[in-house]
C-alpha cells in the first residue's frame, strides 16, 4: 500500500519508516495524521517487526505541522461546515485528541520506536519524537518547540512528555523561549541518546542498535517497554505490583531456556514472534 508521507520497509525484523517529503521539509500534512497511526497499528497488529525506526529524507527531519492542517478547508482542526459555536468547540476538542493519539500510538505499540533526527526537528516533530522510546541525532540537528514562537501552546504531547524525559527546568526553558536547541545540548540534557557526525552515520548507527534489540526475545522487550511506560506514570509501589501481575502471566521460561541453549551452542537465539493482536486498536 502506498503512502503520501512515508516510505516503509521491513527487513530483518526492523521496520523503517521514512518521512519522504523532503521538498516540503517533511511537514505534517492532513494525510500524515492518518498514515502514521495506521502504519504503526498495522505493524503491531500483525507482529511484522520487533523494532520500529523513524527517520526522514532531506535536509530536515520535519518542520512540524503543515499549514494545510489549519487552512484549505481541512477538517482536522474543526472544519467540515459546522455552524453552531458549541459544536465547533467540541469538534476541535475531539480533533486535538485525534492528533495526540497519532503520537500516542508510538507509545502503545509493543515494539520499541527509535527516532533518527537530522537537521530541524520543529514543532509537531518534537511532539512525535517525545513519544519515541529513544532519540538519536546527527551533529547538525536541532530541536525547537516552535509553537510559542507563533503564539500558541504546544498541544500534541511535548509539554506532557518532555518534562518526564529531561529536568523540568530545562523543559520549561525550551518551551518558554522557543530557542533552537543544538543536538549536543539536547544530548547533555538527556533528550538525545547519541549524536553522530553525519546523516549517513546516524542511520547506520540507529539501524545497528535496532538490529541488536531485534535479536532479543520480543516478549521480554514488550514487557520491558510496558513496565517502563507504566512506571513513568505510577508510583513505585503500584509499578512493582503491576510487574508482579505481568510476570506471573507472561513469564513462562521458554525464551530464557532458548537464550541459554543458543549461547551454549554458539548460535543466535530463535524466538517465536509475539502473537498478532486479535483486533485493531
Q: Taking all residues together, what is the mean pLDDT?
A: 94
The helix content is: 40-55%
CATH architecture of the largest domain: Alpha-Beta Complex
Roughly what fraction of the amino acids lie in strands? 5-15%
State the CATH superfamily name of the largest domain.
2-enoyl-CoA Hydratase, Chain A, domain 1
**What strand order characterises the main sheet?**
1-2-3-4-6-9
Strand count, sense and barrel status of the largest sheet are:
6 strands, mixed
CATH fold-level topology of the largest domain = 2-enoyl-CoA Hydratase, Chain A, domain 1
The radius of gyration computed from the alpha-carbon positions, rounded to a whole number of angstroms, is 20 Å
Shape: globular
Order of helices and strands: EEHEHEEHEEHHEHEHHHH
Number of domains: 2
Which residues form runs of ≥5 with pLDDT under 50? none
Give the total of beta strands.
9
Distance between the termini: 19 Å
CATH class of the largest domain: Alpha Beta
Structure annotation, total helices: 10
Please identify the oligomeric state.
single chain
Q: Quickly give the structural class.
A: alpha/beta
Structure description:
The protein has 281 residues and is α/β, with parallel strands linked by helices. The chain is globular and about 65 Å long. 35% of the residues are buried. The protein has helices at 32-45, 85-108, 124-130, 158-161, 168-177, 183-189, 199-214, 218-233, 236-250, 254-265, and strands at residues 6-11, 14-19, 51-56, 113-117, 120-122, 134-138, 142-144, 181-182, 194-196. The model has no long low-confidence stretch (mean pLDDT 94). The protein has a six-stranded mixed beta sheet, with helices on both faces. The protein has a three-stranded mixed beta sheet with strand order 5-7-8.
Amino acid at each position: 500500500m502506498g503512502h503520501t508521507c512515508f516510505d516503509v520497509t521491513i527487513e530483518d525484523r526492523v521496520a523503517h519508516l521514512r518521512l519522504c517529503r523532503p521538498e516540503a521539509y517533511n511537514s505534517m500534512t492532513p494525510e500524515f495524521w492518518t498514515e502514521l497511526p495506521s502504519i504503526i497499528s498495522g505493524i503491531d497488529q500483525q507482529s511484522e517487526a520487533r523494532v520500529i525506526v523513524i527517520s526522514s529524507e532531506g535536509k530536515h527531519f520535519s518542520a512540524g505541522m503543515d499549514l494545510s492542517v489549519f487552512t484549505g478547508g481541512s477538517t482536522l482542526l474543526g472544519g467540515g461546515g459546522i455552524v453552531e459555536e458549541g459544536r465547533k468547540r467540541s469538534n476541535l476538542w475531539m480533533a486535538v485528541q485525534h492528533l495526540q493519539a497519532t503520537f500516542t500510538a508510538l507509545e502503545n505499540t509493543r515494539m520499541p520506536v527509535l527516532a533518527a533526527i537530522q537537521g530541524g526537528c520543529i514543532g509537531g516533530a518534537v511532539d512525535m519524537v517525545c513519544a519515541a522510546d529513544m532519540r538519536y541525532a546527527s551533529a547538525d540537528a536541532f530541536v525547537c518547540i516552535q509553537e510559542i514562537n507563533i503564539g500558541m501552546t504546544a498541544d500534541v504531547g511535548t509539554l506532557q512528555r518532555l518534562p518526564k524525559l529531561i529536568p523540568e527546568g530545562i523543559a520549561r526553558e525550551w518551551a518558554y523561549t522557543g530557542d533552537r536547541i543544538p543536538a549536543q545540548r539536547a544530548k547533555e540534557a538527556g533528550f538525545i541518546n547519541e549524536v553522530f557526525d553525519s546523516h549517513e552515520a546516524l542511520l547506520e548507527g540507529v539501524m545497528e542498535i535496532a538490529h541488536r534489540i531485534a535479536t532479543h526475545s520480543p516478549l521480554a522487550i514488550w514487557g520491558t517497554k510496558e513496565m517502563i511506560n507504566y512506571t513513568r506514570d505510577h508510583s513505585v509501589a503500584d509499578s512493582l505490583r503491576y510487574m508482579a501481575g505481568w510476570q506471573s502471566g507472561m513469564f513462562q521460561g521458554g525464551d530464557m531456556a532458548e537464550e541459554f541453549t543458543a549461547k551454549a551452542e554458539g548460535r543466535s537465539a530463535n524466538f517465536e514472534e509475539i502473537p498478532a493482536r486479535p483486533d485493531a486498536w
